[in-house]
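COURSE: Structural Biology Practicum
ASSIGNMENT: Worksheet 4, Part C
STUDENT ID: 0417
INSTRUCTIONS: Below are two proteins. For each, the amino acid sequence is given first, followed by its structure token string. Answer the questions at the end about the second protein only.

PROTEIN I
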Amino acid sequence: MGFLIYFLILILVPLWAQMKVKSTYKKYSKVAVSSGMTGAETARRILDENGLHNVKVVETQGFLSDHYNPMTKSVHLSPNNYHGQSVAGAAVAAHEVGHAIQDKEAYAFLRFRHALVPVANIGSNLSWIFILIGIFTSATSMFLLGIILMAAAVLFQVITLPVEFNASSRAMDQIVSSGVIRNDEEREARKVLNAAALTYVAAAAVAVAELLRLVLIYTGMQSED
């Protein structure tokens, strides 16, 4: 029974976070920003004010597919945020520009996360193969290798938290100082950014919980040898 509850938590926590961000975004995407600026205009203004004239602002397809690409030096905004004139769109656009500013300043956690990408990809793709081999063959060495690979992927998710929180903090400072939103709109913009942060917190919490569970299984296997 406890095992079932554990897996329900693993499924329900991320689902709840996704529902929260979607409902919050939907609510504030209907609230017009006082400056009347689109997300694209917001991003462009903040980029230019920070000397990032070389960073492009482009439209990308998908719902909430917004991101910053450090390889191409470009801020990608989903259609609603690129063209829309909402508080939500301004907050999301400013958040992605926050990552561009981090990149310019060589923000330590962002650099560390970039360095972890290859290792994290290997860990997320291969960890369960070794874990399952270890379970079915009772080979603790293979199980441990799987845990180590998973730990690399989990570390990536944990390091993502300060990167995202810092980008959101920068976003709030920028959209206020640049005049994109009024002071009375700060609360609404912050709600959008906080809801988005929940998805990263939920993902990291679930990943850490699963890693700890596997470590406990490994210690149990060791004690049986």
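PROTEIN II
(use this one for the questions)
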Amino acid sequence: MSDVLDRLILSLDRHAPRDGVWSTAFPRLWTIRMGSPGVELIHAMQPAALCLVVQGAKEIQLGDERLSYDASQFMVFTTDLPVAGRVFQASPERPYLCLRLDFDPAEIADLLVQLGPPRAAPSGNAHAVAGHANEISRGLFLSPVTDAMLDATARLLDLLDHPQDQATLGPMAMRELVYRVLRSEQGERLAQVARSDSQTQRIHRAIRWLKQHYAQPLRIEALAREAHMSTSSLHQHFRALTAMSPLQYQKQLRLQEARRLLIAEGLEVARAGHAVGYESPSQFSREYSRLFGAPPSRDAIRRRDGEAVRLPA
């Protein structure tokens, strides 16, 4: 495994030449580099994806839960989640290096037709909603990296250096990597992404609606109708998947977009708050401070003064 890992480190070092998140020749594949530990948590909306670290380590916070992982484990997000992350192990000599492969639900569904039911998640899952035909598990998980997964990842990254092979072999290489996740001990949790009749899919519909209408007042009854669920079932399953209520999820969407408007577009504080649905400037400032640790005026001043502020890519 160490030889393959060394090969992956060299490849990612080439294809993430500086700190940041880098697109690749494959639209769903990203390379990530960070040359020093992060001082503060960076908030972002994380899409459904596989994240594989080959050097360094990172922690992810979802609600009140924190997970740390390095090259011994891979992380999977099965739905769009508002998380905060911080690289805590990195240096200029040994930077944090990671790849992210965004999932295609149609690809997962096609693989399931061929594979049949994947392995069930280990028993004793504290984040599952019991008593239902389709249990909902937390929308992110860690699992041990296998030699087969590293081999598949190495073949995929090798294609970045061979443009003539990318159109033919690229889709197969990405498909194999998803296959390896489905064959892992947590494969059943990823399979829920593609099952149209699952409770997970109903919550995905609610999440899509929230992302499209985050600036509008939230009416739980309307959201439950969108998901084809009762309001009590929506609350129960939404929290199981995301570690938060629909209202808390919407708040995260609003505040992360407001921060982007302040820093990336230079909007005034009052305009940014209003743009994401806040009618009360004091409520906006209070909730912004609670999430980011300082009022929105601080980020507006930092932007105005030209101070570098890291936003998620």
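ANSWER KEY EXCERPT:
Q1: The CA atoms of residues 112 and 191 lie 7 Å apart.
Q2: Residues 163-182 form the longest helix (20 residues).
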